[in-house]
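Students often ask why we bother encoding 3D structure as a string. The short answer is that it lets us treat folding as translation between two languages. Here is a chain of 278 residues written in the first language.
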Amino acid sequence: MASSTTTRGIFSDDDSIARFGVGKNMVVAMRFWAKACQIIRDNDEDGGYLATELGETLFNSESGLDPYCERPATTWLMHWILASTRERTSTWYFIFNHVSQQVFDKEAISTALANMVVENGQRVSSATLKRDVDCCLRSYVPRASGSSPEEMSEPLLGELGLIQQNAKGSFEFRRGAKRSLPDGIFAYALLDYWQRLEHTGSVMAFDRVAHDYGSPGRVFKLDENAVADRLMALEGLSKNEIQWTEQAGIRQVTRSGNALKNIEECKMSLLRAAYVNG
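And here it is in the second language, the structure alphabet:
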């Protein structure tokens, strides 16, 4: 990213298609996903867009950790942002947090989403829901037989190996340890999740980290052993500001220092560690 701020017209000017080298619909999609992934935000002062701290840290053309989006850490981080909250990508959140079956199909997901929409007193067409579900799943799994090279190519999130498509057309979560997931990204996600809790404190039960909606264990599809291994590895990475304890059958995580007093600073420090060590 060459500059931290830009005008709103960058995505709507007549020359935006030439600037980005893609079609009009793709320009609109780029704007949506850049905001959904917390790379840019609205600049209320001049009506334009402003790069977030995360966007600058990752994609600044001179000092960014991954200016060309080539590192697995970035892909895992984008998945976390999309699937851990429902603010802009509720379909992602629903699939990775509320679908408990190991094997599932698109129709069942669309129906469940439609029921949730009705329960919340909202109105969304079934066609829109089906498109959203298909968009989410195809972000992780390429089409088995596409009519164009774009449809058959590996999607960005496909390298994470979180979902696979079975021979009969159903989909399946792939749970367990994720070797390409850096400890720094797991640590960032843990503190990000901790930060969103209403009654947050210095201690968190292991079960919440492993199984709660929006938790690292659920969003990254880690089993309990994998979550425990990750937590035990965080003491050294966080300089003892995040500690794992297991006594009398009680497993929990504690935080201190910056992980408690300045969580944003600690999150960004752990994020950088993912690119140094990951």
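Translate back mentally: The mean pLDDT is 89. Keep this in mind for the problem set.
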